[in-house]
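Supplementary Methods. Inverse-folding protocol.

Structures were first reduced to a discrete structure-token string of length 248. This string, shown here, constituted the complete conditioning input.
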């Protein structure tokens, strides 16, 4: 059960972030970045597919990847709260992406060494994508932070708003702790050191003030979400729930 929940955590986080980034398709600030955001969204959706396929094999109950993505309720999702937040503007999207990219690169490096061969292979593929994602989001953090007065104001505001949700990245829940003991999941305490190094380096170059740690929001990994997730699911799941079992 813990392996299934852990895999769902990875899959749900990827799917919801992919859905959020996909909302930029046709709405990007310039064509090049519109395409970049859409491609990153596709990377995350593709990652989610591989993970949901593995969950369906673990369960062996006849449910497909579509069932897990499109037919579960809000409280059944285990994604990070950070990825649920609306895009708001380009700067907010960049800040959200950077915080998650700086986490996923070291995380996937460690997950690629997992004793679970299936997760190791998925992580190895996803790592190549996340390394590009981190370069993209880091460059834009610096451009916006060290750009105009308005761009700096917006990216600093985004970081301030999102910071309280970053702590969930490093707050393991019971199924993560069990997977760590079995040599399957990475130790997030080790990931935190590298995440801080990336964040401090980029924030310094971008002239962004790092918020002080106080308290952090969490609960997403155990099914307690912000109000935003329900709206995402109502859009994302509409067709499958209206016409269940259809092939497209």
């Amino acid at each position: 059960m813990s392996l299934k929940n852990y895999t769902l955590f990875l899959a749900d986080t990827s799917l919801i972030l992919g859905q959020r980034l996909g909302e930029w398709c046709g709405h990007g600030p310039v064509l090049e970045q519109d395409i970049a955001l859409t491609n990153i969204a596709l990377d995350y959706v593709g990652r989610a597919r591989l993970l949901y396929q593995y969950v369906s094999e673990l369960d062996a109950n006849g449910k497909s990847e579509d069932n897990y993505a499109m037919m579960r309720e809000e409280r059944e999702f285990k994604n990070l709260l950070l990825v649920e937040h609306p895009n708001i503007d380009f700067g907010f999207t960049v800040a959200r992406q950077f915080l998650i990219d700086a986490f996923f690169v070291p995380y996937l490096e460690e997950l690629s060494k997992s004793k679970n061969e299936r997760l190791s292979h998925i992580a190895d593929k996803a790592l190549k994508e996340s390394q590009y994602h981190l370069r993209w989001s880091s460059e834009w953090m610096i451009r916006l932070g060290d750009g105009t007065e308005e761009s700096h104001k917006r990216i600093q505001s985004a970081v301030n708003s999102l910071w309280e949700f970053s702590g969930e990245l490093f707050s393991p829940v019971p199924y993560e702790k069990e997977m760590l003991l079995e040599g399957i999941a990475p130790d997030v305490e080790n990931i935190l050191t590298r995440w801080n190094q990336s964040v401090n380096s980029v924030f310094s170059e971008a002239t962004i003030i790092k918020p002080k740690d106080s308290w952090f929001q969490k609960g997403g990994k155990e099914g307690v979400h912000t109000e935003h997730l329900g709206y995402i699911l109502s859009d994302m799941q509409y067709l499958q729930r209206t016409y269940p079992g259809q092939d497209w």
